[in-house]
Amino acid sequence: MNTTSHQLLKGSLSAIILKLLADTEWMYGYEICQKVKQITDGQLKITEGALYPALYKLEADGMLITKTQIVEGRTRKYYAIAQDQQGNAVDRLAQIDQFLHQLQRILTPSDLHQLPTP
């Protein structure tokens, strides 16, 4: 992944996390990384070094709650959207979706002919 793609991914990480958790509810970090890789056919790969600071920030902001479970003798931390933040998460995702739609309108060459000439 090139530097630009990495920066775009980093800037989109909160939205990716919220979307996956909205669809799946409880997930642990490695599972999130693998799900993104699977959905994007390996085109996007989230490193744990990028993921965990985003998870911690969302948790500190009150968007996420956590629980721990012992799995095969190891402690695993699961994340979910806080019940009282479900609406905020949906609103945030809707705003991001609207932004992406507008960005796509700008980037789609077929729409360029509709721009007014100076």
TrEMBL record:
InterPro entries found in the cross-reference section: Metal_resp_DNA-bind_regulator, Tscrpt_reg_PadR_N, WH-like_DNA-bd_sf, WH_DNA-bd_sf
The cross-references to Gene3D superfamilies, in alphabetical order and at most eight, read: Winged helix-like DNA-binding domain superfamily/Winged helix DNA-binding domain (1.10.10.10)
Domain of life (superkingdom)? Bacteria
Where would I find the Transcription regulator PadR N-terminal domain in this sequence? 17-83
Q: Name one Pfam family in it.
A: PadR
Record's PANTHER family? Answer: PADR-FAMILY TRANSCRIPTIONAL REGULATOR, TRANSCRIPTIONAL REGULATOR RV3488
Protein name listed in UniProt: PadR family transcriptional regulator
What organism is recorded for this protein?
Spirosoma telluris
**Taxonomic classification:** Bacteria, Pseudomonadati, Bacteroidota, Cytophagia, Cytophagales
